[in-house]
Structure formats: C-alpha cells, structure tokens
Amino acid sequence: MRARSALARRPRGVFIAAGVGTAVSAIIALALSLPLVGFLAATTATTAGLVPFPFASVIGVTLLGIVIVVGALLLAVTRRRSRSSWALAVVALLVALAVTVFPLTVVAIGSADRASDVIPLIIDIWQRLING
After folding, report:
1. Which of the 8 DSSP states describes residue 52?
2. Number of C-beta neighbours around residue 50 at 10 A
3. DSSP letter string over 70-132?
C-alpha cells in the first residue's frame, strides 16, 4: 500500500516524461536501429567481407546502451520532479540515438580503412600489367 501511495504523489509530468522516453526509445530501436544493423550486416554478407561489420563491438555497445537507456528511464519514473524526469528521458533518447549511429560509424571507418588497403593493391596490379 505504501509503494502505491508513493507513486501516486508524483506529478503527472514524471509519468509523461517516462512514457514519452520509453515510447520514443522503442521507436528508435525498432524503426531505426534494427533495420540499420540488418542492412549493414546484409551488406557485409553480400560483399564477402569487403565491407567490415564488427559484430562483437556492435553487440557490446548495444547491450551497454540498453542498460543505460533502461536505467535512465527507471530513474526518470522514480523522480519527484518533472524536470529531472524529462532530463533523464532526454539522456535515454540521446543514448538510444548514439547506439543507433555507432554501427554506421564503425562500418564507415572500417570501409575507409579497407579502401586505403585496396588502393596500393590496385596500383601494384596496374604496374605489373604495364611493365609486362
């Protein structure tokens, strides 16, 4: 009974902030992150590894991001002031967006690194063709 009355004393804005944070985090995960990771993994599979996809680091960052987002949203719902709840909800959303952008960034950096390895190979092949 005491726990229920403690939740009832919270301002409505606390629950709205936590609800909005949860809903938008879920939308980010389902509509942005999962399709992006699927696309990047499929690209890696169809290019026979020419486009690198670091599965371990993506999984690690995703799991860490989930823990931080869930923790921030749980803290948001336990606050007594709406402002602190909204701040924690925004932190959760920023972390969710960072987790979404991470795989794209890592693949872009890895692809650029691979491209820098390919250019000397192409030059070497070209020189062998010209020199006979």
Report:
1. -
2. 12
3. HHHHHHHHH-SSHHHHHHHHHHHHHHHHHHHHHHHHHHHHHHHHHHHHHHHHHHHHHHHHHH-
- Contact by Cβ (8 Å): 95, 72: yes
Residue ranges per structural domain of the chain: 2-131
Task: State the greatest distance between any 2 C-alpha atoms of the chain, in Å, as a whole number.
Answer: 88
Calpha distance 60→20 (Å, rounded): 26
> In 3D, which of 99, 93, 25 has the Cα closest to residue 60?
99
Q: What is the pLDDT along the chain (132 residues), one digit of tens a residue?
A: 455 555 558 899 999 999 999 999 999 999 999 999 999 999 888 887 778 889 999 999 999 999 999 999 999 999 999 999 999 999 999 999 999 999 999 998 888 887 777 777 788 888 888 886
89: its two tokens: 């909800």
Contacts of residue 2, Cβ cutoff 8 Å, sequence gap at least 6: none
